[in-house]
Amino acid sequence: MNDLIISIIGFVLTLVMMLAAMPSFITYLKHKNINQVTSEYALDEFKNKEKTPIMGGLLFVVIPVIVFIIANLKGLAGQRVQFVLLSYVLFCSVGFIDDALVIRSHSNEGLSPKTRLIMEFVYTLFLFAVYRNVIPLQVTIPFMHISIQIPWFVFLPFMILLYMAEANAVNFTDGMDGLCAGVSFFALLPFVILSHYCGYHNIVIFLICILAGLIGYLRFNFHPAKIFMGDSGSLALGALFASLGIVCDMTIALFVIGGVFVAEMFCVCLQQISVRLFHRRVFSYTPIHYAFVIKGHSEKNIVLSFYLVQIVLSLIGLFIGFHTL
After folding, report:
1. How far is CA 84 from CA 51, 161, 248, 292, in A?
2. Which residue, of 75, 145, 212, 294, has the greatest Cβ tally within 10 A?
3. What integer best gives the mean pLDDT of the chain?
4. Distance from C-alpha of 69 to C-alpha of 86, rounded to nearest angstrom
5. How many structural domains are present in the chain?
6. Would you say the pTM of this structure is higher than 0.85?
């Protein structure tokens, strides 16, 4: 069975399973009172979302992984796709524990920031130790086609920082109906194309399954949302982007493709630094998507605008990626 047929089967099977499973999953979560706890960063207008079930991201992690394994069992032997898949699953487990603690406490008291960062550090260290001989220890400069070899003791801190930054940047973006999942969908498309041109066909199949999972999830997450992804989904997606940037040697293109996530995190960090050092805000509110609500824009229009920005960034990132190969 060729890769195209496997990809089509994986996409259709994942989408069907997501659409079939999500209503029952939402009903179960509601029955168990597993609902959203409003973030400390959220505006008052978003407090009414506390009754919305959380942990929807668990499905777009578990189902694509299961479908990929079933549809492409031989492909699982590829170490590069193992690296990407494990990154996705391991960081999902961090988010799952965080979500579970938040649900149990009925507050935002999940994993402490320190504990979460330690878990992310340990998982990244594990991934590096196991796949050190698989991932390219280099950074290729686009357009110049110059590959800078990086010693492992320098690359490892870089990789740890990249995983932590990507995971938490995506997490900051998860604050409006359909925002994080939709932006992630458009940000993954360039990596499908770039992975294909790199010859990583098993990664392409896996990403297509994830794209189908995100479409199925968005069916229930787009405004008005019936379910939220929680940290289970956002941390998994962040680690997925980090793993793709590393395994495809596209870390520079990644910063452009993930520009929305980078901007969200940058604004939050800048705001925190300014408030603590100078006791004044740089922005009216962060994460920055809430600032547009304060200015009077509707949630739906903000999300669609972010989609448009992400599409442009994905095209620019794809152009950069092609000139990195």
Report:
1. 34, 17, 10, 34
2. 212
3. 91
4. 13
5. 1
6. yes
